[in-house]
Amino acid sequence: MNSTETTPNYCDWRIEIYNCENSTFWIMEVYFSLISFALLAFSGTFIFGYRYRYMWQGLFVDHGGVGIRPLPVDCLLLFFTLAAYLRALHCLFMIIDIYTAYWQREFVQEIAWTFLSYGAVTYLVGIIYTIPVSYTNGTAGIVSLGNGVAGDKKSAFNLTTHKLFIPTPKQLNVCMAIWCLWPSLIALPCAVFSGIEKDRHNIDIASRYTAAQYIADFIFDMSFAVIAAYYGLNFAVVLKSTIKIFETNGSGFYSSGGNPTRKALHRLKYTMAYLSGLACFSGPWWLVWGLAHRQIIGSINNISIFLSINWYIAGAQPLIAVCQYVLAKRIYQKATGQTSSITSTSSSTAPILSQVTNPRSPSTPKRASFKPAVIKVDNTVDIEMSFVSDNPLTREAKLETIIAGSEPESNKWELTVVELDESGKICNEQ
To answer: Where does the record place Polar residues bias (predicted)?
Structure first.
């Protein structure tokens, strides 16, 4: 008889559901979790396969000298789908009672959350990654994101400036490596060691490993929540303000409430808010579980039931479902011909660019260098953030406008540098 065939002193509903108090409730939760994660795994596989079978031309972004990478949303979809498979597998193994040791239970349940973390990290870093190459020349610094024309306080474009720290691509790679290695080298091994000690009936030692595991998860979640909220809120405020400017000035490009630009910005805003909000919510509870898990699962109480519901039902599934719904909706619109396509970004941006470069005050700089940074939200819309700087040697820049085009059928992406003469007209375009 192995160690998992005996009735434990307490029922750790994360890894066992039979022969323990309130077993019927835990079994119902696991069945629901199995069905929901299996559906999400199958739908995620279909969406990912369809995108790379029929829409692959627009699913990669060129980061200049650092290479071509997939879109952040596809990284999110890939790892979330793998996590759904692993969660469904863990639930199935618990239902059919195929585990033979506690370390197996701990490993399978923790590796699923590890892949979920990979998806969130690659998405956040991928969104930030597209910006530095375009206007910081590989140098980290504080960038002022605003909408004003220098010296013109009455200008409609003169809004509050938001300062944002933009790291270099190398720094972003280091951050992504740390974030991915943190759960892989700390939380996951602690989970396995906890299971090994449970198999040896060393409950006290196993409890210490479990505490270390979830304290590490707490640190990961809170650091991710802070950084995601920092960049997400700054992006959302600036982008939303710019759209209002164009609507106020009567720009037909942004006048429609259902235009692709607005929808893309809403997807970016809501995804960042959901990721940071879920991490901020789950982080403190990981800490509570790590420090008091033996007391929580030692009896049937409200905290134990609340955490089990979030663990099996209300935690990851809504986040994965929202991600898949947005992408599935775009696939449906493409299949039914509801999306328009353009092959060149510059053709759609010309009216807006001329509106921006039109002089509004004598303080318009003689030479203004526009360096659009393409933020690839998904394959639907590429958002170009154009920056102007009086001094190209500084890293101070102001967000002058947002220009967006519809879904491209070709893989052409353009970055344009525009110089203005004294009257504000374009004198040189590269």
So the answer is: 350-366
Instruction: Write the burial class of residue 9 (CB in 10 Å: 0-12 exposed, 13-18 middle, 19+ buried).
Output: exposed
> Residues of 51-86 as b/e, b for ≥16 C-beta within 10 angstroms?
beeebeebbbbbbeebeebbbbbbbbbbbbbbbbbb
Task: Return the beta strands (E) in 118-256 as ranges.
Answer: 141-145, 162-166
Q: Among candidates 374, 372, 398, which has minimal Cα distance to 245?
A: 398
3-state SS assignment for residue 256: coil
How confident is the chain (430 residues) per 10-residue block, as mean pLDDT?
A: 50 87 88 94 90 71 62 86 94 93 94 91 82 51 52 44 73 87 92 94 92 93 87 70 56 47 66 77 87 84 86 84 81 68 32 33 38 42 40 33 33 42 50
What is the CATH number assigned to the segment(s) 12-140+171-335? Answer: 1.20.1070
The CA distance from 99 to 90, in Å, is 10
| Spatial distance between the Cα atoms of 254 and 261, rounded to a whole number of angstroms | 8
The tokens describing 44, both together, are 């995620």
Upper half-sphere CA count for residue 290 (Cβ side, 13 Å): 21
Which pLDDT does position 59 carry in this prediction?
65
Residue ranges of alpha helices (H) inside 185-202 are: 188-199
Going 399 to 124 to 381 to 71, the CA torsion angle's sign is positive
Q: Report the distance separating Cα 159 and Cα 350, nearest Å.
A: 24
| SS3 category, 422 | coil
Specify the amino acid at residue 387: F
Domain boundary assignment for the chain: 12-140+171-335, 345-429
SS3 92: helix
Q: How many whole angstroms separate alpha carbon 317 and alpha carbon 314?
A: 6
Tokens representing 267 are 């997807």
Query: How far, in Å, CA of 142 to CA of 348, rounded?
Result: 30
Report residue 134 as tokens. Answer: 């375009």
Nearest alpha carbon to residue 152 among 402, 358, 350, 353:
358
CA distances, 10 to each of 7, 14, 16 (Å)? 8, 12, 10
What is the number of alpha carbons within 13 Å of residue 78 lying toward its C-beta? 13
Long-range contacts of 242-247 (CB under 8 A, 24+ apart): 242/147, 242/399, 242/401, 242/402, 243/402, 245/147, 245/156, 245/157, 245/159, 245/401, 246/352, 246/355, 246/401
